[in-house]
Specification:
Blueprint: H1 3-23, E1 27-36, H2 40-48, H3 50-53, E2 60-65, E3 76-83, E4 86-98, E5 102-107, E6 111-112, E7 115-116, E8 119-131, E9 134-145, H4 147-180
Antiparallel strand pairs: 1-9, 2-3, 3-4, 4-5, 4-6, 5-8, 6-7, 8-9
């Protein structure tokens, strides 16, 4: 390849990345749904009680309430995270609550060591519905990519990673409920 070809190649790659970052959406959503063989009354505490959250959500080492009444709109909680040996943390606020039906949490900016995550304004929504043989949990996670790079990484990688984690969380929840017994 001649030097002129290399210049065109590099300019083309840089242009493609800039266009990808510019054209990427600012807000992303991932969604997962799982049928559980447990009644909603057994599932609900895992969705709302801070200390139970770490028992089923990937990378959450601990989830500690920052207020006495942790299951009310506006209640804050602190999460310690560990992604393959890399420690992190974030705070969440319980944003919406419909007892035994729906709960959502707004995330503060997540940190991994000294670095901030390439996404922000996370919102985890968990919907619980009774089913004939137990219940169905639907999880949605909304987030914004930070700047061009964050939007590009969100489009190419983070969206899929968050979806995988949400699916794993619901699988872990099912496993936890089975271990606990009917």
């Amino acid at each position: 390849m001649t030097p002129v070809h290399w210049v065109f190649y590099v300019v083309g790659v840089v242009t493609a990345f800039l266009l990808l970052g510019f054209a990427s959406p600012r807000r992303f959503q991932v969604k997962a749904r799982r049928r559980l063989a447990a009644k909603p009354e057994r599932v609900w505490p895992y969705l709302t009680e801070p200390r139970r959250f770490a028992q089923w959500y990937p990378f959450v080492v601990s989830c500690e309430p920052l207020e006495e009444n942790a299951i009310r709109v506006g209640a804050r909680r602190h999460m310690r995270l560990d992604r393959h040996g890399q420690p992190g943390d974030r705070e969440e606020v319980l944003a919406e609550l419909e007892p035994m039906r729906f709960v959502s949490f707004e995330h503060s900016r997540e940190r991994w060591g000294e670095r901030r995550a390439l996404w922000r304004d996370g919102r985890l929504e968990l919907r619980l519905e009774p089913a004939e043989d137990g219940s169905v949990v639907t999880g949605s996670f909304w987030f914004d990519g930070v700047g061009y790079l964050g939007r590009m990484f969100s489009l190419l990688f983070l969206r899929k990673r968050h979806e995988t984690e949400l699916r794993q969380a619901l699988a872990n929840l099912e496993k936890r409920l089975v271990e606990e017994g009917s």
